């Protein structure tokens, strides 16, 4: 396909403290008992995209991630792990790995996506339009949470997410305008030239950027070279490309061809592809870009496309603790096809055969109990994920929570809406509600609500 | 009685509530503009012939066909002529459509007209329910019954839905940003589900700014909205009675769109809503200017407006015979064998065409006499015109009774009003407008005025004309008669936009060039704001969470808007001062803020005005400052305020308008010269800045010589301060 895939796996995301730590970078945070990065890798594998570059911020994190990857999927995928400096932003990360990029088009994914949007379909759309950039958007109410009924409980009352404003053409194929929500002040200013060229524009504020992009490599690299101030793909590069789509004098056609030639010496293949994409694009009505170009000979345009995922598709980014809770809930709940496990038909849950349950202990629907975990008597586990080799005492209630590997929970604890990281310890009769407990932390007792337990 | 039946059907669907409601329409037989001058000085616009039939007949015939039962024709300018015409036409005794006239001499805008109707209505209760509001220059064949029904049903569900506006797709030219009807580009935002109108913006002069502004709240309340740039407003509105009372309540509403629609959308009056209805298969257009006159005429000839086409009798006109290639000819046309009447041409009855004449794409009225070897292309010749041998007429409008003597040439875009005589061999320059009446010398600043002085004045003028004519040589050749009107100032460049003549190629090239320049400039302005720089600035702002700061931003924007409007419309300084002061109070700002914001708008205007060199920019800036000196002076009285202005200037130079940087000292000097800034203020500013770090002192250094000079000039200045200054520098 001549697509290279770049996964931006981040480093130690500060949003996710205390869940992440030096030992567990964001990419390895377990979602339903396996690292979040594995979801992206599976997704790509399902589209037969096997040449991947995983970009990790920070050497330490890169080593950790690399270690995991080599143990987990060395036989299935060809993965390179590249370390970049911390806090360079997505743009900076791509600059740093520029020499690795050779293919004509590049698919860029964020490493923290849990989704079932097909990257293959995105790549195909990108090619079909011969676009400079294709952004993947999905509907705002991510399929899971809204249907989970009472399951959400407290989690559901989240604030409406702040979304970007996105302008689409009437065929919903082209991206005409994008405003990052955080940057919108009192009013939105739209460039008239693009609006005039397209005639109609549909402004949507109910679409979410899924952080999956396909770029034409030459265009991406040129922008990154020319605009050293651009840090972020989403906030800088994408809006810039959208804004300049009707006068892309920076990207002269000759240059593109030439670079392609240098790229991998597959000239014939490429020109065939160019012809093919032209045939494909000519088959439909000319896009407004072509019309605009033909009106003003001196102009060159580039296309910014969108791939709008079907509403039934699931897509969420793990970029906050709330999102972490949601993802876990969904992956063992409504979006359980993503988890890669088969749920028991009877109870709609997964209890590992080696797990030990005490008497009168119930494990409800949408639960996951990892390998070798022990649960004492008269416990109740509902809509929660419990990791491997956890020890849970008697009379413990775990609801809407995530308990990571090797955690120890004393008798009579009650845990709701909380995250207990690995090796953490809850002594007897601890009651937690909406709390996070850092890895290895020992909670001594008492009732806690909305607290974060971490060593200073 | 088709219309009656339609009415009946509706009643049976909904017998209880509606009863039989007559379908009524208000037809404004006055456009309240001056775009058709000088022609409209002598005859009202609605009676001007459009393909040989008065415009109002198209409108009335369509209303009748669409099932309207009662039309109120509102007459203002030349009301006597209109009333007279209607009384003698078949409309006076039409079986299905009763035409009633309302006369008011005082109205100078559509708003006034509707207020007048509302007041009258209180006495007579003529308007009973929803009505169609159209202008008397509308040509359409769209069905109205369903639309009215839709409007009524919506109204029943939602009390606040008071108006439905008809829009039609019409993609404006990407180059001139003008629709084919010669109207400005329109930007609409519509809710895709309910079709509610959310934003209405007519692109005027500020298209250079290149962006549409939408309120953030608009986007937050709606998950999606449609933004159109390819729609044309047909000026056909279905209104509920509330519209009339709204006009009554808001006595400053003049223009239907600029004031009323904007008012409802922006000011959110009682939550009233306006909806849109898009038509696709039927025709609707309003003749707003000479270009749309040309376009609509062609549409009629091409039969887009069927059944309102020249070969069908729809209003007592004598149908013409349709030949091949869209040639319509009356039966008694006398045409020489060697004359060539080309495609898409209409020739009225009793017209004679001489040998070897060539007529193409034109409309010739009745009773005209065209000599031999005349060339007429793309022109509109009305009735009883005499064109002598060898004339050439291209893309012109020639009114009744005009005489064009031998060998005269009308260049594209010429408009000859009634009874003008063009002298032998005279060449009428392009885009000129000629009339027997002299151009009113005192141009009324209010553009909404259409010939209020109206018929009586015109008659007087005409009476005295013959004498005068002899005394003064005609503008149209020695044996001609008539004055060429001077194009009023400012409109000079605009003339080609609204003319019957096609847009000349060099103009198009010019615009494309300008567009590219614009883009380049935009590019420059874009680069520093995007990227990291901006997001940083943003985050700082949000961190600080300083509401005052934001407020100031809005305030500044408002002041800028007010100022630009003042410049565009030539509002007197006193009023601008009042307005800005009003803004100051409503935003709770200091006088110093006002000073800063006003100065900022001025400089911004200077920078935005096209210029080639720094010198030119400086000149621009100085001229703006001098022109609006009093405005700035009003707020810049105290030393504090003056310092604020200097600081603002400095800030601008650093951030938004780097071009100004090099001119800092010059402009400061000019402001000192014209007494806007006192030396006290400048020196205090210098003092304050002296302690700042290197980067901040750039402009101080630039002005060093000037400040030095100021200090030397004032002897009271004590010495040690001087020393300090030098040390710093």
From TrEMBL, chain A:
<comment type="similarity">
    <text>Belongs to the eIF-2B gamma/epsilon subunits family.</text>
</comment>
<protein>
    <recommendedName>
        <fullName>Translation initiation factor eIF2B subunit gamma</fullName>
    </recommendedName>
</protein>
<dbReference type="GO" id="GO:0003743">
    <property type="term" value="F:translation initiation factor activity"/>
</dbReference>
<dbReference type="Pfam" id="PF25084">
    <property type="entry name" value="LbH_EIF2B"/>
</dbReference>
<keyword id="KW-0648">Protein biosynthesis</keyword>
<dbReference type="GO" id="GO:0005085">
    <property type="term" value="F:guanyl-nucleotide exchange factor activity"/>
</dbReference>
<dbReference type="InterPro" id="IPR056764">
    <property type="entry name" value="LbH_EIF2B3/5"/>
</dbReference>
<feature type="domain" description="Nucleotidyl transferase">
    <location>
        <begin position="5"/>
        <end position="151"/>
    </location>
</feature>
<dbReference type="InterPro" id="IPR051960">
    <property type="entry name" value="eIF2B_gamma"/>
</dbReference>
<keyword id="KW-0963">Cytoplasm</keyword>
<dbReference type="Pfam" id="PF00483">
    <property type="entry name" value="NTP_transferase"/>
</dbReference>
<comment type="subunit">
    <text>Component of the translation initiation factor 2B (eIF2B) complex which is a heterodecamer of two sets of five different subunits: alpha, beta, gamma, delta and epsilon. Subunits alpha, beta and delta comprise a regulatory subcomplex and subunits epsilon and gamma comprise a catalytic subcomplex. Within the complex, the hexameric regulatory complex resides at the center, with the two heterodimeric catalytic subcomplexes bound on opposite sides.</text>
</comment>
<comment type="function">
    <text>Acts as a component of the translation initiation factor 2B (eIF2B) complex, which catalyzes the exchange of GDP for GTP on the eukaryotic initiation factor 2 (eIF2) complex gamma subunit. Its guanine nucleotide exchange factor activity is repressed when bound to eIF2 complex phosphorylated on the alpha subunit, thereby limiting the amount of methionyl-initiator methionine tRNA available to the ribosome and consequently global translation is repressed.</text>
</comment>
<feature type="domain" description="EIF2B subunit epsilon/gamma LbH">
    <location>
        <begin position="349"/>
        <end position="438"/>
    </location>
</feature>
<dbReference type="GO" id="GO:0005851">
    <property type="term" value="C:eukaryotic translation initiation factor 2B complex"/>
</dbReference>
<keyword id="KW-0396">Initiation factor</keyword>
<dbReference type="GO" id="GO:0005829">
    <property type="term" value="C:cytosol"/>
</dbReference>
<dbReference type="InterPro" id="IPR005835">
    <property type="entry name" value="NTP_transferase_dom"/>
</dbReference>
<dbReference type="InterPro" id="IPR029044">
    <property type="entry name" value="Nucleotide-diphossugar_trans"/>
</dbReference>
<dbReference type="GO" id="GO:0002183">
    <property type="term" value="P:cytoplasmic translational initiation"/>
</dbReference>
Automatic annotation (TrEMBL), chain B:
<dbReference type="Pfam" id="PF02020">
    <property type="entry name" value="W2"/>
</dbReference>
<dbReference type="GO" id="GO:0005851">
    <property type="term" value="C:eukaryotic translation initiation factor 2B complex"/>
</dbReference>
<dbReference type="Pfam" id="PF25084">
    <property type="entry name" value="LbH_EIF2B"/>
</dbReference>
<dbReference type="Pfam" id="PF00483">
    <property type="entry name" value="NTP_transferase"/>
</dbReference>
<dbReference type="InterPro" id="IPR035543">
    <property type="entry name" value="eIF-2B_epsilon_N"/>
</dbReference>
<dbReference type="InterPro" id="IPR029044">
    <property type="entry name" value="Nucleotide-diphossugar_trans"/>
</dbReference>
<keyword id="KW-0648">Protein biosynthesis</keyword>
<protein>
    <recommendedName>
        <fullName>Translation initiation factor eIF2B subunit epsilon</fullName>
    </recommendedName>
</protein>
<dbReference type="GO" id="GO:0003743">
    <property type="term" value="F:translation initiation factor activity"/>
</dbReference>
<keyword id="KW-0396">Initiation factor</keyword>
<dbReference type="InterPro" id="IPR005835">
    <property type="entry name" value="NTP_transferase_dom"/>
</dbReference>
<feature type="domain" description="W2">
    <location>
        <begin position="549"/>
        <end position="720"/>
    </location>
</feature>
<comment type="subunit">
    <text>Component of the translation initiation factor 2B (eIF2B) complex which is a heterodecamer of two sets of five different subunits: alpha, beta, gamma, delta and epsilon. Subunits alpha, beta and delta comprise a regulatory subcomplex and subunits epsilon and gamma comprise a catalytic subcomplex. Within the complex, the hexameric regulatory complex resides at the center, with the two heterodimeric catalytic subcomplexes bound on opposite sides.</text>
</comment>
<dbReference type="InterPro" id="IPR056764">
    <property type="entry name" value="LbH_EIF2B3/5"/>
</dbReference>
<keyword id="KW-0963">Cytoplasm</keyword>
<dbReference type="InterPro" id="IPR016024">
    <property type="entry name" value="ARM-type_fold"/>
</dbReference>
<dbReference type="InterPro" id="IPR044123">
    <property type="entry name" value="W2_eIF2B_epsilon"/>
</dbReference>
<feature type="region of interest" description="Disordered">
    <location>
        <begin position="517"/>
        <end position="551"/>
    </location>
</feature>
<comment type="similarity">
    <text>Belongs to the eIF-2B gamma/epsilon subunits family.</text>
</comment>
<dbReference type="InterPro" id="IPR003307">
    <property type="entry name" value="W2_domain"/>
</dbReference>
<dbReference type="GO" id="GO:0005085">
    <property type="term" value="F:guanyl-nucleotide exchange factor activity"/>
</dbReference>
<dbReference type="GO" id="GO:0005829">
    <property type="term" value="C:cytosol"/>
</dbReference>
């Amino acid at each position: 396909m001549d697509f290279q895939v770049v996964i931006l796996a981040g480093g130690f995301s500060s949003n996710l403290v205390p869940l992440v730590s030096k030992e567990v970078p964001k990419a390895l945070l377990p979602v339903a008992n396996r690292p979040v990065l594995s979801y992206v890798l599976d997704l790509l594998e399902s589209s037969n995209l096997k040449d991947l570059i995983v970009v990790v911020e920070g050497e330490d994190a890169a080593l950790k991630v690399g270690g995991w990857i080599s143990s987990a999927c060395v036989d299935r995928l060809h993965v390179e792990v590249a370390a970049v400096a911390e806090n360079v932003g997505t743009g900076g990360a791509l600059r740093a790995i520029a020499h690795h990029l050779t293919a004509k088009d590049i698919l860029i994914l964020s490493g923290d996506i849990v989704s079932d949007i097909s990257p293959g379909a995105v790549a195909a759309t990108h090619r079909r339009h011969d676009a400079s950039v294709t952004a993947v958007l999905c509907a705002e109410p991510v399929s899971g949470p809204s249907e989970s009924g009472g399951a959400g409980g407290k989690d559901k009352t989240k604030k409406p997410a702040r979304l970007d404003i996105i302008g689409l053409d009437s065929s919903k194929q082209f991206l005409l305008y994008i405003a990052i929500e955080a940057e919108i002040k009192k009013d939105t200013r739209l460039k008239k030239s693009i609006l005039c060229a397209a005639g109609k524009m549909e402004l949507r504020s109910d679409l979410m950027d899924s952080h999956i992009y396909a770029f034409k490599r030459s265009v991406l690299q040129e922008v990154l070279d020319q605009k050293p101030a651009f840090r972020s793909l989403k906030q800088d590069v994408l809006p810039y490309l959208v804004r300049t789509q009707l006068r892309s004098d920076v990207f002269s056609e000759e240059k593109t061809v030439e670079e392609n030639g240098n790229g991998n010496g597959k000239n014939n293949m490429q020109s065939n592809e160019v012809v093919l994409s032209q045939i494909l694009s000519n088959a439909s009505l000319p896009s407004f870009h072509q019309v605009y170009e033909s009106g003003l000979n001196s102009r060159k345009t580039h296309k910014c496309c969108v791939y709008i995922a079907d509403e039934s598709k699931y897509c969420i980014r793990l970029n906050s603790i709330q999102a972490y809770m949601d993802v876990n809930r969904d992956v063992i709940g409504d979006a359980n096809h993503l988890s890669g496990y088969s749920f028991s038909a009877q109870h709609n849950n997964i209890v590992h055969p080696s797990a030990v349950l005490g008497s009168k202990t119930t494990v409800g629907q949408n639960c996951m109990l990892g390998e070798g975990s022990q649960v004492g008597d008269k416990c109740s586990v509902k809509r929660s994920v419990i990791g491997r080799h956890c020890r849970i005492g008697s009379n413990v209630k775990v609801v809407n929570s995530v308990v990571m590997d090797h955690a120890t929970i004393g008798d009579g604890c009650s845990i709701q809406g909380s995250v207990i990281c690995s090796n953490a310890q809850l002594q007897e009769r601890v009651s937690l509600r909406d709390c996070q407990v850092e890895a290895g932390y020992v909670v001594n007792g008492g009732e806690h609500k909305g607290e974060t337990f971490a060593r200073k | 009685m088709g219309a009656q039946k339609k009415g009946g059907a509706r009643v049976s669907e909904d017998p209880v509530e509606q009863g039989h409601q007559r379908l009524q329409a208000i037809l404004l037989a006055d456009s309240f503009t001056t775009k058709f001058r000088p022609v409209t000085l002598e005859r009202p616009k609605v009676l001007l012939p459009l393909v040989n039939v008065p415009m109002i007949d198209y409108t009335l015939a369509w209303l009748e066909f669409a099932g309207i039962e009662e039309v109120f024709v509102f007459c203002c300018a030349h009301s006597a002529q209109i009333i007279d015409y209607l009384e003698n036409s078949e409309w006076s005794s039409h079986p299905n459509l009763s035409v009633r006239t309302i006369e008011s001499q005082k109205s100078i805008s559509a708003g006034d007209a509707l207020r007048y109707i509302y007041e009258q209505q209180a006495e007579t209760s003529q308007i009973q329910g929803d009505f169609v509001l159209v202008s008397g220059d509308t040509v359409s064949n769209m069905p109205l019954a369903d639309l009215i029904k839709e409007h009524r049903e919506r109204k029943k569900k939602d009390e606040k839905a008071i108006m439905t506006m008809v829009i039609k797709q019409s993609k404006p030219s990407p180059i001139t940003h003008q629709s084919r009807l010669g109207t400005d580009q329109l930007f609409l935002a519509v809710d895709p589900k309910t079709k509610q109108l959310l934003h209405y913006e007519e692109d005027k002069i500020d298209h250079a700014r290149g962006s549409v502004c939408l309120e953030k709240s608009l986007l937050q309340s709606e998950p999606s909205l449609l933004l159109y740039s390819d729609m044309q407003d047909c000026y056909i509105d279905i209104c509920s009675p509330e519209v009339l009372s709204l006009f009554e309540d808001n006595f400053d509403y003049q223009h239907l769109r600029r004031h009323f629609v904007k008012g409802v959308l922006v000011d959110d009056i009682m939550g009233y809503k306006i909806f849109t209805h898009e038509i696709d298969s039927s025709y609707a257009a309003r003749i707003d200017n000479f270009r749309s006159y040309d376009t609509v005429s062609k549409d009629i000839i091409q039969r887009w407006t069927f059944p309102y086409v020249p070969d069908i009798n729809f209003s007592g006109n004598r149908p013409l015979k349709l030949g091949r290639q869209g040639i319509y000819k009356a039966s008694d046309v006398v045409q020489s064998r060697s004359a060539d009447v080309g495609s898409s041409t209409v020739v009225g009855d009793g017209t004679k065409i001489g040998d070897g004449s060539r007529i193409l794409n034109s409309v010739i009225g009745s009773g005209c006499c065209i000599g031999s070897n005349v060339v007429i292309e793309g022109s509109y010749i009305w009735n009883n015109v005499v064109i002598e041998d060898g004339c050439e007429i291209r893309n012109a409008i020639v009114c009744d009774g005009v005489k064009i003597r031998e060998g005269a040439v009308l260049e594209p875009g010429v408009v000859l009003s009634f009874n003008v005589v063009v002298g032998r061999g005279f060449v009428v320059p392009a885009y000129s407008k000629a009339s027997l009446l002299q151009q009113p010398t005192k141009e009324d600043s209010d553009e909404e005025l259409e010939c209020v002085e109206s018929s009586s004045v015109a008659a007087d003028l005409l009476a005295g004309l013959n004498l005068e004519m002899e005394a003064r040589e005609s503008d149209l050749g020695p044996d001609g008669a008539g004055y060429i009107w001077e194009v009023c100032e400012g409109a000079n460049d605009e003339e080609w936009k609204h003319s019957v003549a096609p847009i000349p190629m060099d103009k198009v090239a010019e615009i494309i060039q300008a567009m590219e320049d614009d883009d380049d400039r935009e590019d420059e302005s874009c680069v520093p704001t995007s990227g990291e720089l901006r997001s940083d600035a943003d985050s700082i702002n949000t961190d600080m969470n300083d509401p005052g700061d934001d407020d100031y931003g809005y305030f500044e924007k408002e002041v800028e808007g007010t100022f630009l409007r003042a410049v565009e419309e030539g509002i007197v300084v006193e009023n601008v001062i009042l307005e800005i002061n009003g803004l100051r109070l409503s935003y709770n700002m200091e006088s110093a803020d006002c000073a800063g914001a006003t100065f900022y708008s001025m400089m911004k205007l200077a920078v935005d005005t096209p210029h080639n060199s720094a010198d030119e920019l400086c000149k621009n800036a100085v001229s703006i400052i001098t022109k609006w000196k009093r405005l700035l002076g009003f707020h810049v009285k105290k030393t504090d305020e003056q310092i604020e202005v200097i600081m603002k200037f400095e800030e601008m130079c650093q951030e938004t308008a780097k071009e100004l940087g090099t001119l800092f000292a010059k402009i400061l000097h000019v402001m000192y010269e014209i007494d806007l800034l006192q030396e006290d203020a400048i020196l205090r500013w210098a003092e304050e800045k002296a302690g700042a770090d290197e980067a901040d002192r750039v402009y101080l250094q630039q002005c060093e010589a000037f400040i030095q000079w100021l200090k030397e000039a004032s002897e009271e200045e004590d010495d040690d301060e001087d020393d300090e200054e030098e040390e710093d520098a």
